[in-house]
């Protein structure tokens, strides 16, 4: 897989790439959006803690498919306020810190989720 960052575009705003190429014969893994819910049903406070939990849940899903953060090619994330972007981005950057090539990434501000305490939701596509 390789990155797509055309010189005709401005560079990415953060630690992501504009696109990724998936070679023929690659197996794709797509997660559902992961909300910040622990196995016991509790939710941590704050966007960074919630995003960290979302990425921990994603890691468990990917591990079941024998994949990891290095296989993620795209992230779609949703936060309920612009103020939560920094916390989300800190958690995202920590999750992908050891990856040679970051994924493509989209972050959207939404009006809310199914429970008012949820501030973040994250889904990924991985290729192996």
Automatic annotation (TrEMBL):
Protein name: Enamine deaminase RidA (YjgF/YER057c/UK114 family)
GO CC terms of this entry: cytosol
A GO molecular-function annotation: deaminase activity
Cross-referenced SUPFAM superfamilies: YjgF-like
Record-linked CDD domains: YjgF_YER057c_UK114_family
Coiled coil (UniProt feature): none
Membership in a protein family: Belongs to the RutC family.
């Amino acid at each position: 897989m390789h990155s797509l960052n055309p010189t005709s575009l401005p560079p990415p705003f953060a630690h992501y790439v504009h696109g990724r190429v998936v070679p023929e014969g690659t197996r794709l893994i797509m997660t559902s959006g992961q909300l910040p819910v622990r196995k016991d049903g509790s939710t941590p406070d704050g966007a960074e803690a919630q995003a960290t939990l979302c990425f921990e849940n994603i890691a468990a899903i990917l591990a079941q498919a024998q994949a990891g953060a290095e296989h993620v090619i795209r992230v779609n994330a949703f936060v309920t306020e612009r103020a939560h972007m920094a916390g989300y981005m800190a958690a995202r950057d920590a999750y992908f810190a050891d990856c040679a090539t970051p994924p493509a990434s989209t972050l959207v501000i939404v009006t809310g989720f199914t429970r008012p305490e949820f501030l973040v939701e994250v889904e990924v596509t991985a290729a192996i």
